[in-house]
Amino acid sequence: MEKEKEPIREASEEVSRHFKTLIDTRDLDSLNQMQNLILGRLQDSNAVLSHFNEYSENCFTEVSGDFSRNTRILKSMKSDLDYIFQKLRSMKSRILATYPDAFPDDSEREVLDRRPDLELPQ
């Protein structure tokens, strides 16, 4: 079995020697140096991005509770304001039914509720 591997080893060494004559060793050294430089830069970039991701995750963890709480507060405020505007419209319609001249024209009716509906897509 060792005798079978010997000719293969000699053939591969011969091919290797011929291959080395095709390529200049200075070019190989230059390519190796460039690859090492690029590797270093990529490792530095990876370290910076890993640090940034950790920092971003910590920041998000700190503010996510505030975001959730503020979102609940805003939804509650919207619900309260919807109720208030509904009551105002109801009161105005009752006033108009009782006192038709209470509001001079219909233009003021539109002024009371010109806020956009934030739940509808724009």
Q: Explain this structure to me?
A:
The protein is mainly α. It has one domain (11-99). It is built from three helices and no strands. It has helices spanning 2-22, 25-98, 107-112. The longest helix has 74 residues, at 25-98. The chain starts with a helix and ends in a 10-residue tail after the last helix. The model has no long low-confidence stretch (mean pLDDT 86). Belongs to the KXD1 family.
What does the largest sheet look like?
none
Order of helices and strands: HHH
Count, helices:
3
Strand content: under 5%
Rg over CA atoms, rounded to whole Å, is 39 Å
Query: What is the distance, rounded to the nearest whole angstrom, between the alpha carbons of the first and last residues?
Result: 78 Å
Q: What structural class results from the helix and strand content? A: mainly alpha
* DSSP strand count: 0
Proportion in helices: over 70%
Q: Write down the overall mean pLDDT.
A: 86
Protein name: KxDL motif protein
Family: Belongs to the KXD1 family.
GO biological process, one term: lysosome localization
Domain KxDL: 19-103
What's the short story on this structure?
With 122 residues, this protein is mainly alpha-helical. The chain is built from three helices and no strands.
Key attributes of the depicted protein:
122 residues, mainly alpha, 3 helices, KxDL motif protein, KxDL_dom, KXD1-like
Secondary-structure map with pairings?
Layout: H1 2-22, H2 25-98, H3 107-112
Family: Belongs to the KXD1 family.
Protein name: KxDL motif protein
Organism: Parasponia andersonii
